[in-house]
Specification:
Layout lengths: L1 H30 L13 H21 L7 H41 L6 E5 L6 H7 L13 H11 L3 E9 L3 E8 L4 E4 L5 E4 L5 E6 L7 E4 L3 E3 L7 E2 L2 H16 L5 E8 L2 E6 L3 E6 L4 H18 L5 E5 L5 E5 L1
Parallel strand pairs: 1-3, 4-7, 7-10, 12-13
Antiparallel strand pairs: 2-3, 4-5, 5-6, 8-9, 10-11, 11-12, 13-14
């Protein structure tokens, strides 16, 4: 045991002596700005990493400072010729683009000043209003440029100032013609006023006459409708705000299914709506929903009644488009 302890002590002393010698050597070499050999360094890794970084920087500098080989005279002339051709092409493109732009400008100016002047205005489809009435309201005149003319604004003005015009369409006919196509009110609806005059409407509820002496013979009466304001050429306004919405729903169905022989319509509220058919049968349609199917069902039932009695009068009740029953007067 004693021998082992003495051996261990000797090894410890040797290691301590070697460490002391290494420190002295490092301090001595460090004062001269020298590095100890690799095997005497405490840690060689930082020095190796630093050396690698230094080598990388050196290689990068060499790459940056490396110069391309000088071009030959033929290569230089070829590059200059290519550059001149490229610049020449650019100048040509700019030149032709400027010419095209100038031509477009000239055409636009000529079109708005000299060309496409209106020489003819044709009016078609009018029966109630004559040519002079329409021309007096039409804001488009001869010698005006047809592309500057506001056709949409002119259509609206005709429909508002000449209320029996149901639809006006204005088309340009190159080179110098404006064509005005008139559709007059196909069906007139009337409301009897308290002073025994009539307010006449189209199926969009636009007022076409607010003080007519009588209702048209082939018109349709709107019953139980209290008028708030009625200005010719403008939509009517009722005292009941919901009435207008309900009536428009009924009128849309009549127009969509092209229902003929309508003599009157009525809307008491959203759940009580009526169409009088052929001055003798009232279609009691109930709620404002699903009107098309209800009207079809009422028409089918009326046709069956007419087979046995074509002059029968009464009320055809249609609750949901399927259940239909008739009450004779």
């Amino acid at each position: 045991m004693k021998k082992k302890d003495s051996a261990q002590n000797r090894r410890r002393e040797q290691r301590a002596k070697q460490s002391s010698e290494m420190q002295e050597l490092n301090s001595t070499l460090g004062s001269f700005g020298l590095e100890p050999p690799k095997r005497y360094r405490n840690d060689s890794r930082p020095v190796e990493a630093q050396s690698q970084r230094t080598n990388k920087k050196t290689n990068q500098k060499k790459k940056q400072t490396r110069q391309a080989p000088p071009k030959t005279k033929a290569q230089t002339r070829q590059a200059e010729n290519a550059k001149r051709k490229k610049n020449k092409l650019k100048r040509k493109i700019l030149f032709y683009f400027a010419i095209a732009l100038s031509l477009v400008g000239i055409i636009v100016v000529l079109s708005l000043t000299v060309l496409f002047k209106i020489n003819n205005i044709t009016i078609k489809g009018n029966k109630i209003y004559n040519q002079k009435d329409i021309s007096a309201v039409l804001p488009i005149e001869k010698n005006q440029n047809m592309f500057i003319a506001d056709t949409k604004g002119a259509e609206k003005k005709l429909e508002e100032n000449l209320p029996y015009i149901y639809d006006a369409q204005i088309k340009r006919k190159i080179p110098s013609t404006i064509e005005v196509n008139i559709v007059e009110t196909p069906r007139v609806y009337s409301i009897k006023n308290k002073d025994k005059t009539y307010t006449l409407l189209d199926d969009n509820l636009k007022v076409i006459d607010n003080n007519a002496a009588k209702a048209p013979k082939d018109g349709v009466e709107i019953r139980k409708a209290a008028v708030k304001t009625a200005v010719e050429g403008q939509p009517i306004e009722f005292t009941d705000k919901n009435l207008k919405k309900n009536l428009l729903r009924i009128l849309d169905s009549i127009k969509r299914i092209q229902l003929e022989k309508v003599s009157a319509i009525q809307s008491d509220d959203i759940n009580n709506n009526f169409i009088e058919y052929d001055n003798r049968i009232t279609f009691k349609l109930g709620a404002i929903d699903d009107l098309d199917n209800k009207i079809y069902s009422a028409l089918t039932a009326t046709e069956k009644l007419d087979e046995s009695n074509p002059s029968v009068e009464g009320v055809m009740t249609v609750t949901d488009g399927k259940q239909v029953y008739f009450t004779e007067k």
